[in-house]
Amino acid sequence: MKVGVLAQMTGTQIDTIRYYEREGLLPVAARTEGNYRIYDEVHVERLSFVRYCRSLDMTLDEIRVLLRFKDSPADNCAAVNELLDEHIGHVAERMRDLKQLEKQLKTLRAQCQDAQDAAHCGILTGLSGMARQ
What we know:
The chain is mainly α.
């Protein structure tokens, strides 16, 4: 299949597929006599795997590690467990940060309960004060 079909089958932008190829996340595609890349089911499976890992907010480096293990099925997967434990920690940290952000935004929102002229907007005043700090 050509890249457009691969893109459609996996819900991936063509530019993203090319990027993943350059990053070594996808195997090199065979080429036709006209120099078009030809993809097969291996590419569909691998790209779907990469996309799902990205949906879990994994970095490309984390995905590379996981792909190395997928490519070496006889290897011990202890490092995969460690990688996921570390990723869970990063997610928990981001959740704490997002909760703090939500709290700040709610505090800011509470500074302007009624619509009024922008010169007296508590939110804009609060943002300006925070920006100066």
